[in-house]
Amino acid sequence: MKIEKVRSGWQKIEKKFFNIINNLNLKIADKYLCYTTLYGPEGEYKYPNIIDLRIKNNKDIKNANETIAHELIHLLIYNKTKKLKLNYRQTEGVIDLFFTETELMTIFPKYKFQSIGIHNKKHFTN
Question: pTM above the 0.90 mark?
Answer without folding.
Answer: yes
